[in-house]
Each structure stands twice: as C-alpha cells, then as structure tokens.
Specification:
The complex is a heterodimer of chains A (249) and B (465). Chain A is mainly alpha-helical and 249 residues long. Helix content of chain A is 71%, strand content 0%. Chain A is globular, with a radius of gyration of 23 Å. Chain B is α/β, with parallel strands linked by helices and 465 residues long. Chain B has 19 helices and 13 strands. In chain B, strand 8, helix 12 and strand 9 form a beta-alpha-beta unit. Chain B is globular and about 75 Å long. The chains are: A mainly alpha (249), B alpha/beta (465). At the A-B interface, helix 2, helix 6 and helix 8 of A face helix 8, helix 12 and helix 13 of B.
Amino acid sequence: MSYSKEYLQLLDSRYLIMARTQKAALKGIEGGFLPEAAFITKGINVRSLFEEPYELMELDRLLAKPDMPFEVTLRLAQVCERLTRNVDKELALFGAESLNALEVRYVQKIQKLKKGEPSTSARPLAQAQLELALIYETRPALKRFYLAEAIGTLQNLWALSGRQKQDLALWVPLHLEAGLLQEAESSLREFLLETPQDSEVYFWLAKVKFAQRDYLEVMTILAFLQDHGGNAELHKAYRFWLGEAPGVA
Amino acid sequence: MSRKLRVCLVIEGSYPYITGGVSAWVQDILEGLSDFEFALLTISPVADQPLRYRLPSNVVEHRDLVITQNAPSDSVSKEKARQLPTEILRLHRQFFQGDSPEMSQLFSLLPEGVSLHREAVDQKVFWDFLVRTSQERNPIYPFSDYYWAWQSSHELLFRVLAAVPPEADIYHAVSTGFAGVAALAAQVRRQKPFVLTEHGLYHKEREIEIRKAAYVHGYQRDMWIKFYSSVSTLCYRSADAVTALFEENRQKQLELGALKDRSFVIPNGIDVERFASVKRQPRPGRHVGLVGRIVPIKDVKTFIAAAKIIAEEIPDITFYAIGPTDEDPDYYQDCLALAESLSLGDRLQFTGRQNVLDFYAFLDVVVLTSVREAQPLVILEAWAAGIPCVSTKVGNVPEMLDYDERFLASSKDPSQVASALRFVLNNPEEMSLINQRNAEKVRRLYHRSDLLDKYRQLYRFVRGE
C-alpha cells in the first residue's frame, strides 16, 4: 500500500497515529490532527480481503469486532481458512487462531442462548446456529451438525408456540443449506393450507423450487405472485427473478 | 554437609493450578531434580485456586501472587519517592514506544514489598503525562479507554514488582511476561542468577489473545502488544540463560535480544522407560485417541469430525478423547452434542481425566488436532509406547514428524486428519518400522534424564560453577 507524501510527512509530526479506517481518518480530520490526505489514502487504497498478500492488520481489525455483520464474519472466516493452509507457519497459526476465536465466540453465544427463555431466545439461537453452520462450509460434518441443531431449535419453538410465518426466513434457508428440499416444500405447503394466498410463503416456495431446479414451477409461482400479491418490494423481487428488472431477490 | 541449592520457579497461569504441557514439565523438573530444593512463586488471576498437582517434598515454599489484588505495601524514603516519578515515566515511555526498557534504576529505587499501583493517577505529574500521551497517541478513541489500559498495565506491572519472592539461589521463570519480570526483579535486587525457560513464545501468545479480544481496541491494542513484546525483550536481554524447546523458537528469542552465548535449546523430555514399559494389549477393533484437555485450543471438534469420516469407512473403530472436561464446560457440551448428532454413539468416548498409560496399552494411533502447541509431550509419550501419531502442523510438530506429510494435517481440516489416520491404520507393516524409529528417536533426543542433566548443568552455569 502506498501513502501520499503529505501523509507520510505526518508520521514525522508530533502525532503518532495512523488512521486504520476511513471513519477514523474522518474523525482525525475533524479533530484537526490528520490531513485530508489521510481520508483520501484510506478511501482509495481499498483491497479485497481475499487479495494476497493478505492485509493482516485489516483482518485483525475485523476480528476484534464482536458485532460485525454476518456477511463480513463469513468472509473473514473464509480468508482465515485459506490462511490455515499457508506454508508460512506464522500465517497458518494466525488463520487457525482467528478461526478458533470466531468459533468460540459463536459457541459461547449459542450456549448462552440455550440457557435462555425459548420464546425469546430460540430465534437468535437458530440464527447463530445457522451462521456457524455457514462458517463451517468446508467442514461438512460440522456444518450438518449446526444446521440440524438450528432446525431442532425452530421445531422446539414451534412445538411450544405454534408455527410462525416469520420463522420461514430461517426455516427455508436452513433446509436449503441442509439439502432438505422436500421437507422445506412440505412445510411451506402446510403453511399454504392455512393461508392459501400468502404471497410471502409462495415466494419462499419459489426459492425451494428453484433449488429443486423446477424452473417451470418457479415461473408459474412468480407469474401468479405478480398478479396476486405482495408489496412493492416483493414485486421488485419477482421482476428480478423473472429477468424483467434489476433488483435484489 | 553442604546445603542443597534452592531454585525459585516463577510460574504464571499454569502449575500447580492448571494441567497441561508446561505444568507437566514443571512437575518433572521438581520430581526429577530431587538434589535441589525448590520454592514456587506463582502468579495467578484469582486467589485460592485448587491444586491440580501434589507438590513434591523438595518444594519447600510456595507463594501465590494474585495479580488482580493489591497487597499491603511498605513505603519508600522521601528521597526515593522524589526520584521515582521521573523513573516511572521514563519506563512507561520505553514500554509503550516498544523500546527495550531499562529497569535497573527503578529496581534500586523501588524495594520489594512496595507497591506503586496507585501512582498512575494519584500524582499530577502522571495525570499530565497521561493526558498528553493520550492526545498524541490516542486522539481518535475515548480518553477513558486509554486511561484504563494505562492504569491496568501499570497496576499489573507494579504489583509484580512489589512481590516478595521466596529466598533462593536461582530465579527460574517459566515464561517471559510477569513471571519473567518477577524473576528479573529478584536478579537485580538480590544479585541472583535469572534463568528463563519458554515453551511457547509468551508475547506471541498474548498478542494473539489481544488481537481477538473485542474489548481492547484502537491504540490500546498496539499498546498492549508493545507492552508484552517489550517485557519479553527485557527478559531475553537480561536473563543469565534463556532456553527454548526447539531451534526455531530459539532463533526468535535471539531476534528479540537473547544473547547467543546464553541461549540454549533444551527439548522436552519424558520418562521413556515408564512409557516404553507399557505392556501392549491390543483390543479387538481399532482404537484412536486424542490425549488433551477438552478445550477449543485442542480443536476437539476437528477430531470428532475426522472420527466421523473414518468411522464411516472402518466399522470396528473406537475414538477416545482422553482428558479433563471441566475447564470449558460450554465447549465440552458442544462437543458432546456434536458427537451425538453425528451418531458416533459409543464409538466416541469422552473419558475425562485418566491414567493415559491404560490407554497407551491398546491405542493404535494418537491424534493431535491442536491449533497451537510447542513441543507436545503426548507425541513423545505415544512414540515411547510404540504408538504412531498424526497431528496438525503446529509448533515443533512438523520437525518432530520429519515433515512427513503423511502424518501431518493443516489446522482445522478434518479431512486431512482423516487422511493421515487412514494411512496409519491401513499400513501396519510400514508403521511398524516407523514406530521403532520414533521410539528410538525419543530415547535418543527426548529422554527425561537428559532434560534433567541439562538443567543441572544450566543451574551450575549461571552460578559460574
């Protein structure tokens, strides 16, 4: 990574800091102890986490964040997993230790949630179990275990308080990840027996059918949905799936 | 009759309260060097921890310094009190700039039993220093974070400096860090030799802990890392002798200031005869064991996942996780649930704390899936008992296993662990030859009597005998 002359000159100044993030650089500029070049430098020197040589300082900074979005955690875990196979023992150790730290964080969270009141803790528990399963993407036995745990968590919750549509956002991805497509479809059809016109349930069904490669059925469901229901956001998604408009599915 | 030489072992966070490789090593030294007397100065996070080891009869004294508690403090003379702030500020600057600190002047001003843990804020000169350095080094993050990091590091260090260690002829720290500082203080104040033994590399281990700690952020992370690195540098540079378990770690100690002519490799040693005398009593089926505490650092889940892979291929195989399960109950529960979910049933047994010799009688392979190790005793023990080992590539393990990829796996990779297991289980004839070679290697390079002799020599060396 290269730094501007102005920024490097700063290092000789009486201030001994170097901003590690754009946000920190902005704070520094606002406080009057960093030049604007600090922000520009951080703003334009953006590298992918996956790019070698790995930016250990950036990995390190992310690792220290207990509440980072799951997508970032997952990327971080993927990079650390690559590092575990690095020929440089120090880097391999860094990767393994970091991966361990992420796992331990999840295990502690899961064990804490397991001790909580099911009505309030079951959903975050299933979410944490799903996330850990996804972190274990390359270790199938561990992945399957946490997926099964998460499914069990939701089943227990439903046994206590009845099936909830809001849980489909976990239930369906869990079954898709576990390859339990038939089970996912069956449970969605049971929902549809109770609420036959529910566009959200249909939309989940379309996702399951897509995973089953039943594209004709997907088209049929989406066409039905376009005519029959859902809010503007869902309509945007239908159009995207049908290839009619850019958007997010 | 001449008095036995007395060695004070200074130990942080392990023996006699925690089981593991370092503690086993300490117990071996204590029991094996019966021609010496030992005193223990242990540095603990909490008071009154239960002992996990029986102290041998040549341990004549044990003092436990609880690093999180303030002990009653003596006071210093007015003259010394006047000079101390300048000296402490100089020391702080050196520590937090990552320089190699010089502490002899401080030791001369600060006698044992005097704790200056409150000095960080009680005097205006320190407060001003704190405010100024926060503005310079920590302008983006809250002052309160900086203050507490500063206060904590100051308190921990000065509580150790206030310790009154047992009387001894030699002070032998079993790590750098606070144990190293306590031994160094004894070296300077009492004019006694300071021996430093490291199993892993203390500052590296702390660095990893700090890096993954969510509660230490911003400048404080760098500050703590520099602090521990400075402490290690100080210990390496000052010790009369520094030992590492293997050459790679010795080179790292030299890089940080250990003197070449005072730096030695002394590998781990085991009671070879004890393990070699295990009468092998093979049981029907195949038996694979992981010997170690059930904690995340041993990555027992990778062992379980590898067990699942192999169990699907070899029906009559049983796996054993042999070690205490009470250190991290959450992790143990998770491991149990994982094993149950993988339908391993009684083909995977968590045995709890056991006499490993009983298991070495019938195990076909010993597995290590650890994320971090130095020079694992369990490999030496298994080899002496005639059992092959497969392991993750950590610490000195690749060198121990002759870099033979057939027995090595990347960390956290169950499929590679399973491959190594598969090779060992499916090639009994080749393994028989390798087992003999490994047993011979242990006898030649890792014999406990050699280890003890080397420490006897080292103690004489540092006393100039």
